[in-house]
Fold this protein.
Amino acid sequence: MRVAKVFQEVRAAWKRCSATVRRKVRSWAMVSSDADFRLRCKIVWNLVRGESTQRISQILGCSLSQVYRVARRFVQQGVIGLTDRREDNGQTKVDESYQAELLRLVADDSPQDHGYRRPTWTQELLLLVMEQTTGVRISQSRMSRLLRELEIRLGQPKPVVGCPWKKARRTRRLRRLERLIETLPKGEVVVYADEVDIDLNPKIGRDYMLRGTQKTVLTPGKNQKRYLAGALNPKTGMLTWVEWDRKDSDLFILQLWRLVGRDYPNAKRIHIILDNYSIHSSRRTDIALAALGSRVRLHFLPPYCPDHNRIERVWRDLHDNVTRNHRCRTMNELMKEVRGYLETRQRALRHEYAKQCAV
């Protein structure tokens, strides 16, 4: 297509368009959310205005061949020629079945299930295994985009220990605890209880940092510890806790007296859902429970089921917001931050549960 002929044919094609289409092309050249489509509209509009192909190439930062290609498509097809033509490539490779298989692969399999020695996935291994299982081969850049689209992230796995109970027994126990909460008699209270360690040596976690650099976290060297025992009311969102310098039966007994004497003094009975840690069933704890009579009743979760203890989420958030990568130099300074966070979290929980009850 010669230069003079380009202007003639583009202007002729422009004149064949209706006034509405011309107005839309000018608008698309300015505000279209599709950058490639916006560029093609700008090329046509500048050709209609009489700008040279060389000048358009310089202003818009595109090649001369692209200017001629867009002009040819506009002359031959009109406005339709400005749209993305990838739909003409045939049936898409990444269809719903491909996406479903990728989700299943990441969720349920490891490379070792498919004959590779590496235990963790990489994009290269995903490409190879997906080609073996589906017969479809895509580029690594497409796989990278697909992982983002499906919200498949590169994260850190959580270590867990399998529950030694049979599945039926474990399910029965968990359902019984749920029924306890749902059918709680009037005047009685249920709480989830657990303990957490607070270390002066900071837990190390991920953080943003500049490329080529690595942040440092200064540690005191000699570690110190403090322990909390907390109780979360799943019906009201009330969160209470006690502190102790040892993680022993005295810590749990202190929590029991706190619940009975201060937190719920008028409750007929306090049901405590907790794990099987030794201090919850020690001889000293049994003596304290006997002294409390029928005021307190313990309900044990199946072994190794921390995700079913609702206060565990509070402890995870405490570490994320306070203890991970912290810069406190003394235990008193760190505990001040811990108390401040828990008090704020307590107010937020009460507000959230109040809103749910209002609905």
